[in-house]
Amino acid sequence: MQENFLGVSQFSHLITTNPVLSKFEFGSGYMDMVRILENGQTGGYLKALQAVPFSPNPETLYIQISFSVEEINETWANAVFFYSGENFNPDNNQITPNNLLFSRFTLNFLSSGFQVHDVEMGKNSSILPLKTLVTITWVLNNSVDGQIYRKPESAQPEYKVMPGRYDLWVNDELIADDAKAYPGSLVYSITKLSNFEIRFWRGAGRVRFTNLRIRDITNILLLHNND
């Protein structure tokens, strides 16, 4: 899945529960997720969702997300969620339950900038300034073997992520190293990497996405919507 926001969206669903106060705005080469009012009930929320399972079904994912936080009008911990998992429901208006997840991380909105927060490890990135492009590299392994990868792909050294684990990079900062996946259940599922979601849940501000690339770790599988 490659999304550069230059044409038709590759997401299966773009959902807002209040189109006035929580909305998507598109420009040349970007998608903004905007939340104007913090109040969780009145302000609503919005999510970009790949609820249609990836095809072919991936055992690993190498996800790269380039974005900037353009403005923060209300600070909040865990303002924006990023999910990888299965059986995501576009009609679900609550936080995605842990038993559907392989992994997740969030953005913390601060008065001085923002942080990337790894929920499983409880670790935060360094504070990042507004209006600065950030690239997340999220390497997820649901296979039975350890997986070798490079970050970036052409560089040395090589890194390894073990089965049922993931790595999370913020630019060149590794904030989750071989972290445990399956936060809600230890029961293995072959389709645990079939869905993806970005949800702007709390706080208020503007997040601008300029590129999203989802593939398997070895770059053999070209993932696309199975519809």
Overview of this structure, please?
By secondary structure, this protein is an all-beta fold. It has one domain (about 1-225): Jelly Rolls, CATH 2.60.120. The protein has no helices and 19 strands. The protein has strands at about 1-5, 15, 20-25, 30-35, 45-50, 55, 60-75, 75-85, 100-110, 115-120, 125, 135-140, 145-150, 160, 165-170, 175-180, 195-200, 205-215, 225. Strands 1, 3, 4, 7, 12, 15, 16 and 18 form an 8-stranded antiparallel sheet that branches. The protein has a 7-stranded antiparallel sheet with strand order 2-5-17-8-9-10-11, with no helix packed on it. A hairpin with a 7-residue loop joins strand 13 (about 145-150) and strand 14. It is globular and about 45 Å long. It starts with a strand and ends with a strand.
CATH first level: which class?
Answer: Mainly Beta
Termini separation: 13 Å
Residues in helices, as a percent range: under 10%
The CATH architecture: Sandwich
- As a whole number of angstroms, the C-alpha radius of gyration is 16 Å
**Beta-strand percentage range:** over 45%
β-strand number: 19
Main sheet attributes: strand count, strand direction, barrel closure: 8 strands, antiparallel
Instruction: Please tally the helical runs, counting DSSP H or I stretches of 4 or more residues.
Output: 0
Residue-averaged pLDDT, rounded? 91
Unreliable residue runs: none
- Kindly name the structural category: mainly beta
The CATH topology is: Jelly Rolls
Organism: Dyadobacter frigoris
Protein name: DUF1961 family protein
